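On clarity, I found the account of how folds are encoded harder to follow than it need be. What matters is that the chain and its backbone geometry are given together, residue for residue. The format is easy to grasp once an entry is in front of the reader. For illustration, here is how one protein appears when written out as sequence plus structure tokens.
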Amino acid sequence: MSELHPIRMYNGDLPKADTAVIVIDMQRAFFNNNDSLGRAGIDVSPLRAAIPGTVKLVDLARAQGVPVIFTRYVYSPGMVDLGRKYGANPEERKARNSLGYGTEEVELIAELNVRPDEVIIDKSRPSAFYGTRLEPVLTGMGIRNLIVCGVTTNICVESTVRDAGQRDYGTFVVKDAVAEFLAERNHYSLFGMAWSFANVVELADVERSWVGLKVAV
């Protein structure tokens, strides 16, 4: 790998008040090669790198009273909302009902221990804002800052982050709680987000900011 341009990292404190953690698409299909993506020839094993950091971030948020919102990539019955066939092996994925409503592979991974009172947003496009109830939920909860993690960095995470930044949310991406199929693509997605759409941080920055806070900021 050639030398990569450094990602501009954010070194300030992260807010805790009016803040939510957005967990993007941490579903079984994106981590298990026995599910439809793997069977269609897409090796999802590199995405497992996002699991430890995401689990730690979710646990930290819960302990600090910060709400956690999950998204799932789910197509409607019959995959009527599949849309134009972009991406890898779309015809085979359609034939396999990949990420289809009601399938076990669309469920969030057990490691997250999703609670009954936590919000889950289903979507059928990369951005969690497009065609979903996410923005009304954030408005109703009084959320103005988003801390984003999950998969994949340069598709669903980045699409959500771009939409959040353009809506003037304070937006942070946790570098060690996201993952992509290729290391270079992961790096330059973070590089691009840090350039204009979000602050890129590490899990240790979140912990330092929240655990060390005596009052919400």
